[in-house]
Predict the structure.
Amino acid sequence: MKVAVLDDYQRLALEYADWTSLPGAEVQVFHEPLRSTEEAAKALKPFEIVCLMRERTPFGRALIDRLPNLRFVSLTGARSPSLDTAALKERGIPVSNTRSAGGGGSTVELTWGLIIAAARGLAKGERNMRAGKWHHELGAGFSLAGKTLGLLGLGNIGARVAAIGKAFGMECIAWSQNLTEEKAAAAGVKKVGKEILFETADVVTIHLVLGERTRGLVRAEDLALMKPGAVLVNTSRGPIVVEKDLLDALQTQKLHAALDVYEREPLPADHPLRKLENVTLSPHLGYVHEDNYRTFYRDTVENVAAFLAGKPIRVINL
């Protein structure tokens, strides 16, 4: 049985789980992304089992239909917006998911790392230090105390980000399509309209699930409302923000963005975001930490073993 383990960018899959425990399995790990449906179809055609790292490789119907040998898919995490579970169900192919470690805490931590880095110019400062410079072309930055934190989404992660904001002495406001006054009050946050949030926040941070209602939710008209020098933080999903509109806003030098997620991942080497000084970038690290990876890969091995034994576990589509 040929098993493909995709998108192990950091070369940790074989270290963090015992793949040798799978009887009769021939495991091949892919360390580089498969950048197109054509490339993925060609590379994965021989495999009966494919193990996905979240949504790093889009796994839609166009690809599934070109994998005649596919019999089982294991997905790290709870869900993937780019995995067509219905197309797999039509072919009787089960999809098993895995648990996660930390309950979103690492994303909360990274959000605050990005906020502080953007507010104090740490990325530019670090580049200066490595280049033998000091305060060269480095702005004054701003302290968070007394500033306004605007949260798009006040779920598990958003509420925890707000709690830390209050500890820093920030006023916290929030908006989402489903947010109620009661839920906002329970988190110690003021519910406001979307326009008010963008107009008044010094930091706007996004904590929404990507879906039909949230894709392209943040557009040019929202970014135009933001204060000069305000920061937009996205550790959720890239397509929630219209990328072209964000690039246009950043090129005016009015805003700063701190981003962990992008419209296309990995971010292309020649992407214009890489060339802008008023952007702090990280390579989608919100969920990337040792405890999570160990849980992901150990559960993946369990999923494959259960399928090989004829008793799939944690199945989400059949």
Q: What stands out?
A: The CA atoms of residues 78 and 97 lie 6 Å apart.
